[in-house]
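User: We ran a pulldown and think these components assemble together. Before we commit to crystallization trials, I'd like a predicted model of the whole complex to look at. Sequences follow.
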Amino acid sequence: MTEPAELPAPAPQPNLETQPFWDATAEGRFLLKRCDTCGTVIWYPRFLCPDCHGTETSWFEASGRGTIYTFTIVRRGQGPYAGAAPYVAAYVTLDEGPTILTNIVGCPPEQVEIGQPVEVVWHDTGEGSALYRFRPVG
Amino acid sequence: MSIKGQIAIVGAAETSELGRIPQLSALGLHADAAVNAIRDCGIDKAEIDGVASAGQSPVAVAKHLGITPTWVDGTSVGGCSFMLHVRHAAAAIAAGMCEVVLVTHGESGRSRVGNGAWSPDLQSLNGQFEVPYGPTGPPTMFPIGVLRYMKETGLTAEQLATVAVVQRQWAAQNPRAMMRDPITVEDVLASRMIAYPMHLLECCLVTDGGGALLVTSAERARSMDLTSPPVYVLGTGESCETPMVSQMEDFTTSKAFRVSGAKAFAESGIGHADVDHLMIYDAFAHLPIYGLEDLGFVGRGEAAAFIGEGNTAPGGSLPLNTNGGGLSYTHTGMYGMFAIQESVRQLRGTAAAQVPGVEVSVAHGVGGMFGASGTLVLTNQAQ
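Assistant: Here's a predicted model for the assembly, 521 residues in total across the polymer chains.
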């Protein structure tokens, strides 16, 4: 499911609260949590609902589709990203509701637009997880 | 202007578990404790308009819990920060800045999940003037003055060990305490030497856990449908002395303790004889000794004999560290929250090792290595 990175893919360090999320990324599945009590979709992964404080929550697989909410073009990367610029750092609003930080790949940075529909692609970190990035659809 | 009796703790709870909690990050421990405290007082989270925390930023805590505060306090001066948070919250509530303040602590001290790495800034004062000489953090740096105290007052190794023995007597009555098996002075002195003259059993535990409090006005507390009676704040104090333990004015007494304690007692208007129950943050066995003297419960050099005579033990005249303390109950890293929690339980009458008839409890904390201090005088008697 995952493909080689065109951007660096530094591995995140999961803990037991986030482990199921990162484990699923290795299989190309984007998991979200939903509150069993009030139905709120929860992002970032945590053990409780920030809305009602319910602690009964369930993982579900998201569609992997969303829309570009806003973005910037990074002109000078740091750390693992040194030399990788220019690249796009964007907020994508998932079809399920949450807005997340990610990269837009698969098109030149200057062609990225607010409102573009995008879909998830997975970039293997080589350490049992993958980074979710998004590419324009159609 | 005084806040005496005008402020109340209406919610108090610890994390559901204590000890080893690898499934929760430090921030998750804050949240777990907060949810438990919110349920403890039956408040709607929308009523919370103040957030204070240390270790994790109050910004992160508020976001994690979906709270939008009008008052934020990130005072972080070590393990007594939560005493200072209550004090600051009291002032803010009295000034009308906010009405209901959530104070949280959570630390993954043992499992180190999302807790950050401890590494000194080598350009800081202690980075330049202490770290190069090889002290390995609190176990060597904190007790370094106690040998001088022993020299000056005649405190013996057996007397120091007795502090740990007595606290284990309390812990033995507490199912949530990590260490509950009775120990003797001989056991303490036979335990591994950590840094002369401190043995393993004279050093605090290293655990995962957290706690949270909800603080509001006594007036508002009266109109709330509370599950437990309010605990009122009679007096508060805070101070600080030095970022480098090597620069204490006198290594046998804490100036921050003396200043903070005197301030809290003066505001409360009570005398030492009025105190039914006492918590003194015990990162190491000498802290209750320093605390008893610096808070004025006993005179200079008298604390060890006072403890040795059983005054602080179960059945004694001044029950001290009745949860078992940092030595036997739990010690996440910033233990002060647990001292307050035990004071609240004793005043509510819900402690595991309940002392009969507690009306006034003092919770006293240390921050860093005698760097800072905070003191709360609490009561269950409406003023």
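Strands of chain A lie at 31-35, 41-42, 57-61, 65-74, 87-94, 99-104, 117-124, 130-136. That may be worth checking against your pulldown data before setting up trials.

User: Thanks, that helps.
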